[in-house]
Amino acid sequence: MGGRRWCGGRRAGRMRYVGVEERRGRLGVRHRLATGSRAERPEEVAEALVALHGSDPATVHLAVGARLAESGKTVAETERALYEDRTLVRMHGMRHTVFVFPAELTAVVHASTGLVVAGRERTSLVKDMAKAGAPDAAWLADVEASTLAALERRGQATAAELAQDEPRLREQFVYAAGKSYEGVHTVSTRLLRVLGVEGKVVRGRPLGSWTSSQFRWAAAPPHPELDVAEAQASLLRHWLTACGPATEDDLKWWTGWKVTDVRRALAAIGAEAVALDEGTGYVAQGDAEPVDGGDRPWAALLPALDPTAMGWQRRDWFLAPALRPPLFDRSGNVGPTVWWHGRVVGGWAQRPDGEIVWRLLDEDGVGREAKAAIAAEAERLRGWVGATRVTPRFRTPLERELSA
C-alpha cells in the first residue's frame, strides 16, 4: 500500500497522508468486497455499510448479494432480515432518501437526521392543504390517528387497504395551483410520507417480488428518543468507520446536515485528521493506519445506487471523471458499475434473456486476471438472480445500451 507519509506545513507531523491506493484497499475490506472479506448474513453487510440505498428495491438485494460469501441465499436471507426477524428496517434517512438500516441504528438515524426533515414535511403538508382549501390541521391529526390505529390492527397494509378503514385518506387536494408544476395530491400519499420521516411507519413487505416497489406499510419498531447531538456523533462514528477517510464536504453531503453539525460531531467523536489528495480528511479515532488485506485484488459488479459508489461526494479517487457521463443519470444517480481492485472500470446490465453483460470503460491495469475475475462475478450474479429481470429505477446511458 506504499510507505507512510506525513503532510508538511503548519500541521507537519500531525496528519498522516492516505493515498488513493490505500483508500481503495480500505474500501474493499470495509465494504465486504475484497477477497476473504465477504459476509455470511445480510445483517453483516448492512452493518458494514451503515445504510443500503432503498429507493430502488432491487438495489438492496443486489448490494447484499455482491457481498455475501454464498450469494445463492441472497433473496431468502434478505427477506428474512427485512420482514420476519426485522433486524433490517427500510425507512427514510439521510437526504430525505429511503434506506435500509440495521435495526439498532433506527433511533440514531431518526434523531440525527429524521427529526429536522419531519418537521419540514409536516409544515409543508399543512400549508399545501390550507392553500388548496382542504380541511385544517386538526382534521389531519384525526385522520392520522385513525390511520395508525388501522395499521396497528392490520399489522401491514397498503395505502389502498388503509383507505378502506379510513376513507378520508382518498381525499385529494390541488398542489401549487397555477404553477407549471401544479398537480393533484392524495392525502394518503402525503400523510404516509410524513409519518415515514417522523419514524411512525416504515416500509413492509412488497406486494410482488423482491424487485417490486409496491410496498405495504407497517408500524415502526419502538425505539428510544435520543439526544440529537449524541445521535449525530454516533452516526458519524459508524460512517467514518465504514467509509473514512472522508472530507468535510463528503460528510456534509452524505448526512445532509449543516456544516456546523458535521464539525460538532467530528469533535465529539475525536475524529482524526489525515491528509488526502483533495485536502484534509477524517477517520474515526484510532483508525488512521492501513487495514489488513487491503492489497488483495478483487472484482465486483455493484448495482445502481450501490452505497459504495454513492458513499462520497468526491469520487475521483475511485471513479475517473471521464466515466461519469455513461454511468450516471442527469440527477447524479449512479447506474450498475464494474469494479476492479477498488476503482470503477466499467458498467453492466441484464438483457431480457437474463444474460449479464458488461463493458470496460477504463482498461488501464485491467489485465487477463481482472477480466477473468469480472466474468466470474457476472456468472455468479446471473446464477442467483435466476429468472428475475432487474431494470434499475434510474436508468443510465450505458445500462440502456447494454440491456437493449
* Cα gyration radius (Å): 22 Å
- The structure class reads alpha+beta
Give a quick account of the main beta sheet: strands, pairing sense, barrel closure.
Answer: 5 strands, mixed
Termini separation (Å)? Answer: 40 Å
The count of helical stretches stands at 14
Oligomer: single chain
Poorly predicted ranges (pLDDT <50, ≥5 residues)?
A: 1-6, 8-12
Which geometry do the CA atoms define? globular
Strand order of the largest sheet: 1-2-12-13-11
- Chain-averaged pLDDT: 92
Q: Residue share in helices?
A: 40-55%
- Total number of strands: 17
* Binned strand content: 15-25%
Protein name: Winged helix DNA-binding domain-containing protein
GO molecular function, one term: DNA binding
Pfam family, one: AlkZ-like
InterPro entries: AlkZ-like (IPR009351)
Protein model, in words:
One of its GO terms (molecular function) is DNA binding. Pfam families: AlkZ-like. By secondary structure, the protein is α+β, with helices and mostly antiparallel strands. Among the domains are: 104-219, no CATH class; 299-403, no CATH class. The protein contains 14 helices and 17 strands. It has helices at residues 20-30, 42-49, 57-65, 74-84, 106-131, 137-154, 159-165, 187-197, 228-243, 248-255, 259-268, 324-327, 368-385, 397-403, and strands at residues 5-6, 16-17, 52-53, 88-92, 98-102, 156-157, 172-175, 183-186, 201-206, 215-219, 246-247, 272-276, 279-283, 299-302, 337-340, 343-350, 356-360. β12 (272-276) and β13 (279-283) form a beta hairpin. The radius of gyration is 22 Å and the shape is globular. The two termini are 40 Å apart.
